[in-house]
Amino acid sequence: MPAKMVYENARRIVGAEVQNIVYGQWLETVLGPFTLFYSGLAISPFRRTSYRSYIDPSIRNEFATAAFRFGHTLIQVITNHARKTLH
């Protein structure tokens, strides 16, 4: 198999794993199952999903910045919790 094909396959797998972690685990923890369900973001084993090429997957810079800052606020909570656990 050519190196480019190996790279593209690995890229698809990593992207799918990231989506699984974000939508299947992390987002539910942050937003809660109620919010996910009513916003249409919940993953259901009974509902089939498909790729829609007409949807633009890009995000605005303002949203990316807010998400980046929000993610960093979680780090302090995690480190404070770990510090208390260790002492």
How does this structure look, described?
- This protein has 87 residues and is mainly α.
- Helix 1 crosses helix 2.
- The longest helix is centred in the first third of the chain and has 29 residues.
- The termini are far apart.
Total domain units? 2
- Hey, roughly how much beta strand do the residues contain? under 5%
Q: What is the mean pLDDT?
A: 80
User: Which oligomerization state do the chains in this entry correspond to?
Assistant: single chain
The helix-and-strand class reads mainly alpha
The percent of residues in helical segments reads over 70%
Please name the defining characteristics of this protein:
87 residues, mainly alpha, 2 domains, 3 helices
Summarize the helices and strands and which ones pair or pack.
Blueprint: H1 3-31, H2 33-39, H3 61-86
Helix pairs in contact: 1-2
Summarize this, please?
The protein is mainly alpha-helical. Helices cover 71% and strands 0% of the residues.
